[in-house]
Amino acid sequence: MDTYQDLITQTFDFPNADFQVRDNELFFHDIDLMALVEKHGTPLRLTYLPKISSQIQRAKKWFAEGIAQTGYTGSYSYAYCTKSSHFRFVLDQALKNDVHLETSSWFDISIIRSLYEQGKVGKEKFIICNGFKPDEYKRDITALLNDDFVNCLPILDSPNEIDYYHEHVQAGKKVKLGLRLASDEEPRFQFYTSRLGVRYTDAVPLYEQRIKEDPRFELTMLHYFISSGIKDTSYYWTELSRFIHKYCELRKLCPTLTTIDIGGGLPIQTSIQLEYDYPYMISEILRTIQRICAEEG
Description:
Blueprint: H1 4-11, E1 19-22, E2 25-28, E3 31-32, H2 33-40, H3 49-70, E4 79-81, H4 88-95, E5 100-103, H5 106-117, E6 127-129, H6 135-146, E7 152-156, H7 161-168, E8 175-181, H8 200-211, E9 217-225, H9 234-253, E10 259-263, H10 278-296
Helix pairs in contact: 3-4, 3-10, 5-6, 6-7, 8-9, 9-10
């Protein structure tokens, strides 16, 4: 009689680098999962710290290989988004891998302060401040800026967000800014998020009228976010292409604009069977950027 284990081994590439079977017990990276279940019960979620580093390094490796393969002349940086996990032990592990940090809420700024006070990050650390910003969030971002966190980048999520920084950033400071462009919704996507970000038609006027002439501010980053993540769909490639065209338009007006921030993330593996071609998608993203930049001159 066939067993469930026979079904698994015949259907998937199993055992694999993550999961092994020893004496009919399932192990994850040498961790006895049944022993954890017996101790803590189910449902059970575990965080395996070495996996955090290996995933970050794997993404860096894929981009390095894609850059070499395509001849892309830019560079790649990994930003860890604190909203994915606020736990200290997770952040400590991520910081071992030379990552930028990305915040999404007022709460996250207190984490940045704590990391600085513990000596785990310096004031030169790149901190990308994304998300909708109520006054508390803008207040604490501005406090970082005035306290000489020189690579703290507020990403403008709406045209009027800049007003707060105009009023509260001290004279003589030099502040890098980013701009989030509002993406169109994927057809039939269940969440409405296109209200988040600056409309494409407002991007150039916002730069020329509210940023360009203020000596405290320079626009250095353009950001967009796709809620459904990075997927090989016509919707995704259309949105990416539209974004890169707008980047090129702004870049011709703003020589300090040197960085694009692609949000949404690569999908995590949720099955034993690997179903996503990460190297292909990364190479295609790089090729798309190259092609459009060449077309735009």
